[in-house]
Amino acid sequence: MIDIVKKLDQETEKKIRQSPRNSNRSSELGWWEVCPRYLVLIRTDLDKLPLHDLSLQRIFDEGTRQERLVRAELEEAGIEVHNVQRDEKWAHLNISGHIDGTISVDGKNLILEIKSCSPNVFRTIKEFKTAEDLRGSKYFWIRGYYAQMQGYHLLFNKEDGVILFKNKSTGEKHQIESHIDYEYCEKMCQVIEEVNDRVERNDPWPAKECEDCNRCGFAKTVCFPNKDYGEGYDFYSDDELEIKLNRREEIKAIAKEYERIDKEVKSHFKGKNAVVGDFLIESKPYEKKSYKVPNEIKEQYLEIITYFRTKIEKLGGKLNGITE
Amino acid sequence: MNDEEKVTNGEMRESQVETPDNEMSIINVSAKGDMDIEKEIQKVEKQVAFFLKIKIVSLKLTKEKDWVFQQNSPYLMDRGTENVAIAWGIDISDVKLKQEWEEDNKGRYYTYVATGKAYSKKLGRYVEDIGVCSQRDKFFGWVKGEMKEVHDVDMANIRKKAVTNLYSRLIKRCIGLMSVTTEDLIEAGLDIKKIQGIKYNSGSQKAKARLSAKGKEVQQKLGDMLLMMANNDEKKAKELLAQYSAWKDDDGKEHYADSFQKMSEKWLMTTYGKAKKDFEKIGGSEEGEQIEMNDEEENENND
Fold first, then answer.
1. Angle of CA points B227, B231, B237, to nearest 5°
2. Tens digit of pLDDT for each residue in B133-148?
3. For residue A50, which residues of chain B lie inside 8 Å, CB to CB?
4. Which pLDDT value is given to residue B146?
5. Over the stretch B169-179, which tens digit does the pLDDT of each residue have?
6. Residue A161 within a domain
7. Quick one: pLDDT at residue B179?
8. Which of A52, A288, B25, B41 has the fewest CB atoms inside 10 Å of its own CB, making it the most exposed?
9. Residue B159 and residue A47: Cβ atoms within 8 Å?
């Protein structure tokens, strides 16, 4: 019988390639804030960017298919999608991009960007309500969506847009509106101007380590940032501490059982007084003061406090006498 | 400067802590008099004991999934190496990459050589090393047993692999994990049955029971060979097994095996023959020696 999986993979594999970059693509603009050097290298040293693998190509292809499905769903729902895959280029700053489409809602013409996500990513995305939330994300690639949309606003001369996220597994959708952010665009364009200049001179910014180096294909082929793994662990040779840790390990299971049973029993007798065998159980109400403060007031008093989450894990075998 | 260590004041001195088997010879013992030698020996003994402790502690910081067995030797993969690097405060710096061209009877080809330094803030130990990867790399430079043309090889991946190999070697040398044995892993409390490679070979116990001694040996060798050809990627090794075990019956129907379980001894032998041919073409040999590599590089799978 024909090996269908192999045949399909062979077809997918054919699409693994890098197409030359002659412009600053909107989908990559997010790098301007993190590492503008990337935007230079992608145009001057593309041959040093390792090709992606089959699994990633499968994800890209799936994304394209999902985009078509979402457009069909929109049409079915009476939302017409125009300008599908329309390309645009802004010659002055050499920024290019192609949009998934435009839609008309309440007399407004919006740029439409469709993103299909895995269930895990979708869960993260669903926590974001506004484009500003995307911009503030700790994940670089999510912040990149904000930059991408700003690029589209500039390119297509439209002030509003919407990103429609789809959970690939459940079909659930989530939308985030996007509006042009002139201040952001101004700063971004200044950097892009310098990117173009540096491409012209073949003179990228010097390599500088950033937390997104591990996501960048150039890190190990061109930039070689120093890799500092931190200060290292403190190694103790303290018998007393070790005895405590061992004891903690021994009673961990019993403590967990205690917590489970305690919770179960207390919830059973909530608001009741009772005697069970040799045990007296009393459950009395008590009051706690609570303040319902509107979010905008809360925000004024926001401060970030650092706490430590301490995890204790038993290593394999027995650790004894580590240090001299 | 591979076997040297930089102390904090910037002076160089010979490494004090390396693997006991192949690095003892470089421990410096000055012969100023009997008393000095005795003291030095005690010092060296203490250092060796300390080194062994560092090694075992490092191994305890890894998990079974961080290891693979290749040719019956444990190999620590990148993920595990990074965890150990965090523990010992490793700082990698001054990484440089250069391309070198060579020529042999198969033609001209290039090799990328990455060089760099690593310093452990916890151990005060400093090393320099190299990482290499050639255009004829088993994974990137070959397709269906044929060597790819130079323009068909993704140069960026060769560059990246040379640097990845360098990072891995720097960390391992700095901590002293260059020659870890199965016994070391057991001593560190790791369950070697859970390590990939062993599982790969022992997953076919039923089939193995039906095989002759020779058949069992061939199965073991084939498993090791495919894993090496697939750069320790079990999934890819299975794909290679499917590729080399493929045959057509009289009706033109294709058969292949994705595990050793359903393979007869004869089928194993034929598959082994086909795989071995390609394995040798790319520079592999059953003794674990590889063309274009010295012994140390071979131990570290540095390609």
1. 40
2. 999 998 888 887 788 8
3. 154, 156-157, 159-160
4. 83
5. 999 999 999 88
6. yes
7. 85
8. A288
9. no
Q: How far is B82 from chain A (nearest CA, A)?
A: 8
Same domain, A131 and A218: yes
Sign of CA dihedral A104, A109, A114, A120: negative
Claim to verify: residue A93 and residue A18 sit in the same structural domain: yes
Q: Are residues A210 and A71 in the same domain?
A: yes
Please name the residue of chain A whose CA is at the shortest distance from the CA of residue B239: A6
| Domain containing residue A33: CATH number | 3.90.320.10
A306 inside 8 A of chain B by CB:
no
Tell me which residue range forms the domain holding A139: 7-223
- Are A20 and A140 within one domain? yes
Annotate B186-217 with DSSP letters as a single string.
Answer: HHTT--GGGSBTHHHHHTTHHHHHHS-HHHHH
From the list A49, A316, A323, which residue is nearest B156 (CB)? A49
Listed by number, the residues of chain A in 235-254 with a beta carbon closer than 8 Å to a beta carbon of chain B are 235
CB contact under 8 A, B157 and A318: no
3-state secondary structure of A142: helix
Q: Which residue has the tokens 């007084």?
A: A273
Question: For the whole prediction, is pTM greater than 0.80?
Answer: no
Does residue A192 sit in the same domain as residue A49?
A: yes
B94 contacts in chain A (CB < 8 Å)? 226
User: CB distance A324–B50 less than 8 Å?
Assistant: yes
Strand ranges (E), chain B: 4-6, 12-14, 67-70, 73-76, 90-104, 107-120, 125-134, 142-143, 146-147, 247-248, 254-255
Residues A133 and A75 in one domain: yes
φ, ψ at A53 (rounded to 5°): -100, 180
φ and ψ of A108, to 5 deg: -100, 145
Could you tell me if residue A228 is inside a domain? no
Question: Chain A residue with minimal CA distance to B54?
Answer: A322
Say what the pLDDT of residue B10 is: 31
Q: Give me the interface pTM, i.e. the ipTM.
A: 0.74
Q: A108 vs chain B: nearest CA distance in angstroms?
A: 46
Domain count, chain A: 2
Question: What are the structure tokens assigned to A9, written together?
Answer: 């993979």
